[in-house]
What we know:
By secondary structure, this protein is mainly α. The protein is 43% helix and 8% strand. Helix 4 crosses helix 5 (87-100).
Amino acid sequence: MTEPGSHWYDADAGPLVRPYAMTGGRTKPGPSNVRFDLIALVVVDDDPPDAAAGASLLGPEHRALLTLCRAETQSVAELAADADLPVGVVRVLLGDLLEAGYVAVSRPVPPAQLPDERILREVVDGLRAL
């Protein structure tokens, strides 16, 4: 016997499409298996190759991500939040868009390659001395 109020109704059940259906069962972004960091920035390419033919192959989730990126450059995490999709799904969809040439991704600089804080302070002090 079920308790009162424990029934799920269509409006309360959430999305009807499971994440694996949005990605065609894939869990990795594209054949190149590129990895998208959460803070990687995604920019729409204004002149993608073969845009007319490729646009018909894009699903509604792909088009939603492109619309979000056209408004402003966003990180992978922001795209997932704004599109209300799991990050894993967004990564797979972005892999499709990247391989088709619709987007460009700038990856964050690894901390080991960032300049030393001491050097930056010396540069600022030198500029102030001018």
